[in-house]
Specification:
Elements lengths: L1 E2 L2 E2 L9 H4 L10 H4 L12 H8 L9 H5 L6 H10 L2 H9 L5 H7 L3 H5 L11 H14 L15 E5 L3 H12 L3 E5 L8 H4 L8 H13 L3 E3 L10 H7 L2 E4 L5 E2 L12 E3 H12 L16 E5 L3 H13 L3 E6 L25 H5 L2 E4 L1 E9 L2 E13 L8 E4 L5 E4 L2 E4 L3 E3 L5 H5 L22 E3 L2 H4 L4 H20 L13
Parallel strand pairs: 3-4, 3-6, 4-5, 6-18, 8-16, 9-10, 9-16, 10-11
Antiparallel strand pairs: 1-2, 7-17, 12-13, 13-14, 13-15
Length: 497
C-alpha cells in the first residue's frame, strides 16, 4: 500500500533486514575467463539475491538516496517492491523517473549508494544492481513495450546527438506527441553508449534493443548526418519547430608536450571507439588500426575512461600497461574532512584493475621520444601536491631527481573533455557559449537562439550518464512548454525536486 508516494514504515517487508543482512553484489566472472572476451563482467544475479538486498533498505523518513540520484529515482519504493516480489510494480516505479535503467544499472557510479543512510557506518544497499535486475526482468517478461502516443501535436523537433541526453529528450518529446527526429553524425546511435563505453561494461545489444523500441514508438533516426557539414543549419531551423542540441562534450583535453605528434600517441576515444567498431563488424585498415597486442602501453588518466582503455588493452594482448595519474593517490578510507553524505573521495578500482596493469599516482608527463616518427619512450617526473594557502587549490611541485622513463609503443590520452566543438554547427547557429566553452542556456534551458535548447554535456560539461538522462528529460519538458504553452512532462533535475 502506498501513502503519499511513500511506503508506510510499519508495512516494510523486513524491518530488520538492514541489521541482519550484509551487502552482496553480483559475482564477477573469473579474470582468466573474461580477459578472453568482451562480454560483460558480471554473472547473472538471482532473484532471491535481489529480494534479499532490497530488504536491506530502511525506507528512511528522509531518503538521502533520492538526493544522491540526479534523476530522483524513488528508490525505497522499488527496493520494497522487489523484496515483495512485485517486479512489475518495481519496474513502473523505476521507469517513472528513469528512461533507461538498463544503461544506468550498468555504467553509473551510483551516487545514490554513496548517499544511502547505511553508508554512515555500514555498506549501502546495492541499488544499482537492483535497478539492473528490475529492468532486465521487464524485458524478459515483455513488460517493456513501445509507447506510441495516442495523439500527435503536429510539432516537429530535431534532437542533434544520440547519446543518453539526446535519447532521453527524444523519448520524452515523443511521448508528449511531437514528431521527433534524432540526427547523429556517426554511423551508430547511442553516442558514447555505443562508441565510447567498452562491450565488457555495456554490451551493444542492450543499446540497440532500446533504440529499436524507440523507432517503433515513432522516433526517426538519421545517422551519418553531420549538421553544419552535410545538413545545413538553415534547414535545422526551418524544418523544425524546436531544436535540442545534445551534441556532447567532445573536445578532448590535450597534452601539449614535445613528441605528442609521434605515431603511437592517441586520444582514448580514438582507441575505444575503434575497438567498438571492430566488434560491431566494421573493417578497419591495417594502417589505421590502433592495436595493443604485444605492446608496452601507457594510459594517461586515472578515471573511468582510463580503466576502459586498460581493460581493452589487456583483451587485445598488451605486454604490460601502465596507468598514470597526475593527482595524488586517494585514501582507501573516507577522510574526516569528507563526511557522509558527500561523495566519498576514496580510491576506486574497476574490474579492469583486477585483470592487470600498473597504477601510479602523482606522475607528470614531460615528453615523448622515438625514432623514425614512432613512439618509443615516455619521459616523466614524480610530483608532490602541497596544500593551498587559506584552503585554496593545492599546488604541484616536481620532486628533484625523480625523473624516469617508460618504454612504450602505445600511449593513450584519457584526460577528459573540455567542452563541445565550437566550430561547425555551433558557430553557424550563432549560439552563445559560457566561460567554459559550453552552450550557454537560460533557466528554461534555451540557448541564445530562440527555439534552440541544449541538454547534457553540451551545456553542463563532461559528466555522468545519469546526469545526461536527467538533463535530457528536463530539456524535453522545457521544449514541450515552449511549443504548447503548457506541459505534463515532469521536472527531472534536483533543483526542481
Amino acid at each position: 500500500m502506498v501513502q503519499s508516494g511513500r511506503w508506510k514504515q510499519s508495512e516494510m517487508g523486513n524491518p530488520t533486514g538492514s541489521t541482519e543482512l550484509g551487502r552482496n553484489t553480483p559475482e564477477r566472472r573469473p579474470v582468466t575467463e573474461r580477459k578472453g572476451d568482451y562480454r560483460e563482467f558480471y554473472k547473472p544475479w538471482g532473484e532471491e539475491q535481489a529480494k534479499e538486498q532490497g530488504s536491506r533498505c530502511m525506507d528512511c523518513s528522509v531518503p538521502f538516496c533520492h538526493m544522491g540520484c540526479p534523476l530522483g529515482n524513488v528508490i525505497p519504493e522499488f527496493n520494497h517492491q522487489v523484496y515483495l516480489g512485485n517486479w512489475q510494480g518495481a519496474l513502473e516505479t523505476l521507469l517513472s523517473t528513469n528512461n533507461f535503467p538498463e544503461f544506468t544499472g550498468r555504467v553509473c557510479p551510483a551516487p545514490c549508494e554513496a548517499s544511502c543512510v547505511l553508508s554512515i557506518n555500514s555498506d549501502p544497499v546495492t541499488i544499482e544492481y537492483i535497478e539492473k535486475e528490475i529492468v532486465e526482468r521487464g524485458y524478459e517478461e515483455s513488460w517493456i513495450k513501445p509507447e506510441v502516443p495516442a495523439v500527435r501535436t503536429g510539432k516537429k523537433v530535431a534532437v542533434v546527438g544520440s547519446g543518453p541526453s539526446g535519447l532521453a529528450a527524444a523519448q520524452q518529446l515523443n511521448r508528449a506527441g511531437h514528431l521527433v527526429t534524432v540526427i547523429e553524425r556517426a554511423s551508430y546511435i547511442g553516442g558514447l553508449l555505443s562508441l565510447g563505453i567498452p562491450e565488457f561494461k555495456l554490451e551493444k545489444n542492450v543499446v540497440q534493443r532500446r533504440v529499436q523500441l524507440m523507432s517503433e514508438e515513432g522516433i526517426i533516426f538519421l545517422t551519418d548526418t553531420n549538421v553544419g557539414v552535410d545538413f545545413p543549419v538553415e534547414r535545422l531551423l526551418s524544418d523544425f519547430d524546436a531544436v535540442c542540441l545534445a551534441c556532447g562534450s567532445t573536445e578532448a583535453r590535450e597534452l601539449d608536450v614535445p613528441g605528442r605528434e609521434l605515431e603511437g600517441v592517441h586520444l582514448a576515444m580514438e582507441y575505444l571507439s575503434q575497438q567498438n567498431k571492430v566488434l560491431s563488424g566494421e573493417a578497419i585498415s591495417v594502417e589505421d588500426r590502433i592495436e595493443a597486442e604485444g605492446k608496452r602501453g601507457v594510459i594517461l588518466g586515472g578515471g573511468d575512461t582510463g580503466a576502459d582503455c586498460l581493460g581493452t588493452a589487456i583483451r587485445q594482448g598488451a605486454e604490460v600497461v601502465h596507468q598514470l595519474e597526475l593527482l595524488a593517490e586517494p585514501p582507501e578510507q573516507r577522510p574526516s574532512d569528507n563526511p557522509w553524505p558527500q561523495w566519498p573521495l576514496v580510491l576506486r578500482s574497476s574490474p579492469a584493475h583486477e585483470e592487470g596493469g600498473v597504477r601510479e599516482y602523482s606522475i607528470l608527463t614531460k615528453s615523448f621520444s622515438g625514432r623514425n616518427g614512432k613512439l618509443e619512450k615516455l619521459h616523466a617526473v614524480k610530483v608532490e601536491w602541497q596544500p593551498g594557502e587559506n584552503g585554496g587549490r593545492p599546488t604541484m611541485v616536481e620532486i628533484p631527481g625523480s625523473e624516469f622513463e617508460i618504454e612504450t609503443e602505445l600511449t593513450l590520452l584519457a584526460m577528459g573533455f573540455l567542452h563541445p566543438e565550437g566550430e561547425g554547427m555551433l558557430s553557424q547557429l550563432g549560439v552563445e557559449l559560457d566561460a567554459r566553452g559550453n552552450i550557454a542556456i537560460d533557466s528554461n534551458r534555451m540557448s541564445s537562439v530562440s527555439g534552440v535548447f541544449a541538454a547534457g554535456d553540451a551545456a553542463r560539461g563532461q559528466s555522468l550518464v545519469v546526469w545526461a538522462i536527467a538533463e535530457g528529460r528536463e530539456t524535453a519538458r522545457s521544449i514541450d512548454l515552449f511549443l504548447m504553452g503548457e506541459t505534463s512532462l515532469p521536472h527531472s533535475l534536483p533543483e526542481h525536486g
